[in-house]
Amino acid sequence: MALTREQMAQRVAREMQDGFYVNLGIGIPTLVANYIPDGMEVMLQSENGLLGMGPFPTEDTIDADMINAGKQTVTARIGASIFSSAESFAMIRGGHVDLTVLGAFEVDVQGNIASWMIPGKLVKGMGGAMDLVAGAENIIVIMTHASKDGESKLLSQCSLPLTGANCIKRVLTDLAYLEIENGAFVLKERAPGVSVEEIVSKTAGKLIVPDHVPEMHFQ
């Protein structure tokens, strides 16, 4: 069965390392804040000027003025810092973010990402996505494997306007964890109960399938 949003966030949280500065994009990536392993020191950054985000608040800890870039209420951990968005983007553009987790509409075998607009639909603008893909060496895209109509989002070539080119190396979908190498998706892990055949059928871009593809495990 396909991963839930929470399971996707749990799986990405395993990629964290002690001492990392991490930017979480809008959407599913924000849930990763709830699953940082106990005892691990990770500083979560938001483009609007918060370094040191904690988990989402409970009803009795909500502060309406404490929000992330997606305007969701968040908490601040001990040692957090609040500063201007200009300083926040200087941190991103200066390459000081160790890991970026982004949502996307499409990713292709060349590591291109389309995440900011669908032609004909109203959009607010690029936001911080272009800065994030340009300033980060280590990016994980987290998204559904296919659209609601069943169309693959893992393509030979992105059809939507690009956010960044040749910048994505890892993708986690609700069906699989994949890496991009030499113009192909390489299947590394599959969601519990999801067959390799289903992943193959829903991947439009070139896909390399190793002899053994382990299932992800969740507690």
UniProtKB/TrEMBL annotation:
InterPro entries assigned: 3-oxoacid_CoA-transf_B (IPR012791), CoA_trans_fam_I (IPR004165), CoA_transf_AS (IPR004164), NagB/RpiA_transferase-like (IPR037171)
Domain of life: Bacteria
Record's catalysed reaction(s): 3-oxoadipate + succinyl-CoA = 3-oxoadipyl-CoA + succinate
Keyword line: Transferase
Molecular function GO terms recorded: 3-oxoadipate CoA-transferase activity
Pathway(s) this gene product operates in, as recorded in its UniProt entry: Aromatic compound metabolism; beta-ketoadipate pathway; acetyl-CoA and succinyl-CoA from 3-oxoadipate: step 1/2
Enzyme Commission number, as recorded: 2.8.3.6
BP GO annotations: beta-ketoadipate pathway
Membrane spanning stretches: none
Family the entry assigns: Belongs to the 3-oxoacid CoA-transferase subunit B family.
Protein name stated in the entry: 3-oxoadipate CoA-transferase
Record organism: Pseudomonas orientalis
